[in-house]
Amino acid sequence: MKYVILAFIGLVVAPLAGGLLAGIDRRITARLQSRQGPPIRQALYDVLKLFGKEGLALNKWQIICAWVYLIAAALACTLFFLQSDLLLIFFVQAVGAVFLVMGAMAGRSPYSQVGAQRELIQVLTYEPLLVLVFVCMYLAAGSFNISDILAVESPLLAQLPLAYIVLTYILTIKLRKSPFDFSTSHHGHQELVKGVLTEYSGPYLALTEVAHWYETVLLLGVCALFWTTNWLWMAVLLMATYFLELVIDNTMARMTWRWMLKYVWGIGLAMSVVNLIWLYAG
Amino acid sequence: MSNLLSILILLPVLSALACYIVRSGAVRRLVVTVTGGVLSVASVALLLRGSFEAWSPGTLFGLSWDLIITVLDFALLGVILYYGFKLKSLFIQIFTLAQIVLLSVFEFIIVEHVAVPAFRADNLSLIMVLIVSIIGSLICIFGLPYMNRHEKHLNLQKTKQPEFFFYLVIFLGAMNGLVLANNILWLYFFFEVTSLCSFRLIGHDGTKVAVANATRALWMNSFGGLGFVVGMMLAYNAVETLSIAALLTAGPQGALALTGVALICFAGFVKAAQVPFQSWLLGAMVAPTPVSALLHSSTMVKAGVYIVLRLAPAYQGTLLSDTIAICGAFTFVACAALAIGQSNGKKILAYSTISNLGLIVACAGLNTPLAITAAIMLIIFHAVSKSLLFLCVGTIEQEIGSRDIEDMRGLYERMPRTSFLAITGVLTMLLPPFGVLLGKWMAIEAAAGSIWVIIMLALGSALTVVYWARWGGGMMGSRKPGQPSESLPLLINLPLMLLCIGAVGLSAATPAIYANLIQPMLSSAALAVNTTTGSLGAFAVYGLYIALGLGLFVAFRAGRRAPVLRKVGPYMGGANLGEDGSFNGPMNQPVAFGAGNLYLSELFGEQKLTMWVNIAGAALLVLMIGGGL
After folding, report:
1. Among A198, B273, B287, B524, whose CB has the most other CB atoms within 10 angstroms?
2. pLDDT of residue B165 exceeding 90
3. Which residue has the higher pLDDT, A80 or B582?
4. Residue B23 in 3-state DSSP?
């Protein structure tokens, strides 16, 4: 029974929470920019509206890829709530990431092709760091299994402060926030239109949007694993992290992929290695 | 037993001779197909018989087989030396002469010729026999129609196919011998046969480039062979037996013996084209597709990793083991990075092969039961998926006249069947729940305890995603409703389909493969792997399979809606003009559009990276061999 409830949370509650979070995100961003902002449920309304639109696609591969993206993201999120293996979750979410890119490459559209290439570089940037963060968690908790990680006695954050900073970099890239938003170029009518998402439209765009909510919840869930001993502190950690993301998003300019690859790999690898050495020595 | 072994090793030799002597195409077709079928059945039969400890053939016309192998060994070195002089390659001459001298000293002075069982098979050998016999046979069969088209394309006056199939088929026998051998001298003999065969096959087309690349392959492998001879002498010096089984049970035996083992592993590294020796395998791409498929997926390079993996107990827990892991992991990440800078499809496959072999070597070096399991899984699944991809690229190349992945953009429109198979091949190399990824997952889990290896594995695995996703996505494309599919000859279609089914279906059998084949072998190491959690969790595999399978089913059903949707062109920020890929631009002029891949050549270009990779690779190799002393 416990597992049914957990699966339900992962499959149904998580995307709704992700949608609300997207609404809150827009609201706070608007306030940071001295605007009123839309209602909190706006993101949900938008997706519902998209589902009602006429389906348009360049070819069948695009439709298939949008669906696989959604299913993989949902599966990864559900596995997370079922307290499965971190590496397994990592690989399942990678299925989604790969199919999103492949769908964008399936058409002849230059905008979405360039977006896909840039998205691949984003994947290239965050993937190794995410693996290393998971390895740090493994060394600290003794297992890749979330159920074991939940059983630790003191918050992982104490042992893994640097790994957590690396995780915030990953979060920024994965949420496609500035300065790392060049695969979609956050707003339409910029150099890439909507980059990797340009050719997804109507219900298929809605699918990718829902998948993105799943991913957001999944990543915040990973952040939450760093403080599992106390609910209150976990909530504070998550809120502080997400607020930090918003501030970064609103204060940074979009950079180039060269800068991202060199900067994030440099900083991220250095921090992961230092944290790993602490763990090995400890 | 004796019958099965003779079929697996000697039948290919006889068939090869038949192909060579009877120069008729129909006979060749029959001989190769039947040999392939018989080999496959025999390999399965051998598997069902199970592992065996020792078996030696009797005598042939009153001569002992040991003597025959010795004579053949020197004859083989003589042939290689002859090619060394013919090609005026100083390297080949020196390395081969040194081998002849050292081998004579070893055979006639050092070794006391006591009877040692010639063959022995544990499950690793049996798995290798399966891979060689089944996948190798499929590739040979694929080669029949392929070579006809190939020669038509080259406008040859006189067919060179008898020689081609002679070496191709004999290769299978040599590989079977290699993986079953227990007497290290026999292993060495088969090792050298594969070197010679690959040399002849790479140079088959006889062009200037082909000859140059074949020469390079031969000198590098002769160098490896020299390492093998020296390593064999050092190891014999310590354990005083020619039996590999005895060498393995003895375990690590002091510095000198360990250096010997390191040198034999070095020979394996050369054969598996680990950096800095990757260039011979890249050069092998000039050969016709069946050759590159055979060299890469199931035979030559797998012989290299097999040797390293076979010797794993002999260096367990030593510094050598750690350095082997680091060398392998370095090859994994370096070649994955080099693959990103490539647009030549075959070169991407080549780099990906070397990179995956690096991962297997790294697993052998990690040397825990989980890591060894990962290595064997990777050997199996990589062989299936990679041979599928090679054969697909070969088929595509014959159709579109290019092996550049930029020219394969939207290939689905022209070759829906082949590109679908190729995309499936790409996915099985990259994503769960397929076997290659399960192997990678185990490898990462096993490497979590060693910091440098895990960092390189993390980087390499991300780099891998880039070049595969880019290629797979690029091949997807639009098709008009009702457009006819392409037609392929039966003998091309059949191997492709079988390999594709194998690549997808075998992954579902991972828990069974583990429980029946790998675990019994590891139990002697007294360290069983916990199968209920982690990467070997049977539920994880089956559950994943079902969940992702259902997902794919839903996705494809949704995809079937595509034809009823209103037809649209890509968004170009202006009115599209027809379907030829142009839009109405400024001044009402049509502007053509298109997009290419980002190859990040300023970071991952071949010219930029190769030198540094080679230097680092060579340094690591020296560290590996010297570290034993």
Report:
1. B273
2. yes
3. A80
4. coil
CA atoms within 13 A on the CB side of A117: 17
Residues 88-147 of B with CB under 8 A from A: none
At B239, is the pLDDT very low, low, confident or very high (cuts 50, 70, 90)? confident
pLDDT of B530 > 60? The answer is: no
pLDDT tens, residue by residue, A160-215: 999 999 999 999 999 888 888 887 776 655 677 778 888 888 899 999 999 999 99
Helix (H) or strand (E) holding A154: none
The one-character DSSP state at B573 is: S
User: What pLDDT was estimated at residue B422?
Assistant: 94
Nearest CA in chain A to B456: A128
At residue A86's C-alpha, the angle toward residues A83 and A87, to 5°, is 145
- Alpha carbons within 13 A on the beta-carbon side of A65: 33
Separation of alpha carbons B424 and B428, rounded Å: 6
Q: Token match 């005026």: residue?
A: B88
Closest CB to B461: pick one of A64, A75, A127: A127
Quick: pLDDT tens for B197-214.
999 999 999 899 999 999
Cis peptide before B276 (omega within 30 of 0): yes
Q: What is the pLDDT of residue A188?
A: 53
ipTM score for this prediction: 0.94
Whether residue B477 and residue A199 make contact (CB cut-off 8 A), yes or no, is: no
Q: Is the pLDDT of residue B563 over 60?
A: yes
User: Both tokens of residue B439?
Assistant: 């192997």
Q: What is the DSSP string of B440-475?
A: HHHHHHHHTTSHHHHHHHHHHHHHHHHHHHHHHHHH
Any B CB within 8 A of A92 CB? yes
Q: Which of A224, A214, A168, A238 is nearest to A22 (CA)?
A: A214
* Residues A44, A98: Cα–Cα separation, whole Å: 25
Distance CA B176, CA B278 (A): 24
Every domain of chain B and the residues it spans: 318-507+600-629
> Which pair of structure tokens corresponds to residue B43?
């390999």
SS3 B513: helix
